[in-house]
Amino acid sequence: MEIRTASSPKDVKYYTTERLREEFLVENLFKVGEITSVYSHIDRIIIGAAMPITSLMLTPGEEIRAEYFLQRREMGVINVGGEGTIRVDGTEYTLKSRDGMYIGMGAKEVIFSSKEKDEPAKFYYNSAPAHKAYPTVHIKPENCVRVELGSLEQSNHRTITKYILPGQIESCQLVMGLTSLKPGSVWNTMPCHTHDRRMEAYLYLDLSEDSLVFHYMGEPIETRHIVVRNEQAVISPSWSIHSGCGTKAYSFIWGMLGENQDFDDMDGVSLGTLR
Ligand SMILES: O=C[C@H](O)[C@@H](O)CC(=O)C(=O)O
Ligand SMILES: [Zn+2]
């Protein structure tokens, strides 16, 4: 498990491109036949992926000193590859592309598999420390809350599908979903915001080989960018804006952990404030 420490905005404003990427960009999440994981000290999120050819069992790794991965944790998963299955303590769930799962604290055995070896499932996950066992649920995007935001005129017309949130799929602290831009729209989350109460992680998707996203981060008056390519993730500290502009329409999975689970508890940043 790779460990990343927390960082202060007082230091981050002096970082070079390379240092910014080292701290906040997660480049090689999807590895054929492997489960990868990055443990961040920021709210102790674990960001990872499973890309099974043969079955892959989730193991805790030395770093979390647990008997099993979800002993004191919960996890949200979204499949961004071909059809696959997740077996949780003997119960098998079949996840089509973009289906999700919430796996509650206490699940001992989590096994990832793909239906077709040449079109493997790609399970992206966010895991948070937990204190209570909420039910494990297969999440179908068609049954989720959907919000349409933005407009083509502002290049930010998008649909937000909320997978894990209070009132729909209960969790201890994880809130998770997927946002897709409409063709011709390239901006996500602009006007942007911060939420000092929660950190956030973004996984960018649906980018072709020849396209990329400029992800913006930093305090609103001290912004920086990170060039992000397909299936790469960005860790966004609570003090940072998180917004992106792509060379084409794309999607991204967002996951939040922290003080509260209130999606709308954000501090909007006016365009006039940004620097
Ligand atoms: O706090 C909320 C998160 O930043 C994202 O959900 C924003 C987002 O998906 C969007 O505006 O498109
Ligand atoms: Zn946010």
UniProtKB/TrEMBL annotation:
InterPro entries: KduI (IPR007045), KduI/IolB_isomerase (IPR021120), KduI_N (IPR027449), RmlC-like_jellyroll (IPR014710), RmlC_Cupin_sf (IPR011051). It comes from the Bacteria. Keywords: Isomerase, Metal-binding, Zinc. Pathway: Glycan metabolism; pectin degradation; 2-dehydro-3-deoxy-D-gluconate from pectin: step 4/5. GO terms for biological process: D-galacturonate catabolic process; D-glucuronate catabolic process; pectin catabolic process. Binds 1 zinc ion per subunit. Zn(2+) binds at residues 193, 195, 200, 242. Pfam families: KduI. Catalyzes the isomerization of 5-dehydro-4-deoxy-D-glucuronate to 3-deoxy-D-glycero-2,5-hexodiulosonate. This is 4-deoxy-L-threo-5-hexosulose-uronate ketol-isomerase. It comes from Anaerocolumna chitinilytica. The gene is kduI.
